[in-house]
């Protein structure tokens, strides 16, 4: 018996301020709000594109994301080309978000794939990358994948 084909459905993230996070993810990723509940004790937003759910935000936490704890390492989104990564980086900088490396960097020394690495308002690590075109800059870490250590 063979296993069924699997595909990631959506990613759910705990946030501290639903309105702030919804605005951030919509601005950076051009997400639509597919559904939401913004009042009461159970606040959430369903975000996606073209009717496809990609990210859910749940306002049910406090503090900041603890990168030194087991759990989510980072959330990555692939875009078609390096120009789309450059546009995302410009949007980030326009919002006052500084990339965690020196702008757009490759996934590893000699790799063509790469992107921009940053955090959301709660400190959740995010990546926007393209499969080619990032090989114009040096890799931040020569002996390990960039996306693993940021």
From TrEMBL:
UniProt entry keywords in alphabetical sequence: Metal-binding
Domain VOC: 7-131
SUPFAM superfamilies registered for this protein in UniProt: Glyoxalase/Bleomycin resistance protein/Dihydroxybiphenyl dioxygenase
Membrane-spanning intervals of the chain: none
Keyword Calcium annotated: no
This protein's name: VOC family protein
Species whose genome carries this gene: Nonomuraea antimicrobica
Taxonomic classification: Bacteria, Bacillati, Actinomycetota, Actinomycetes, Streptosporangiales
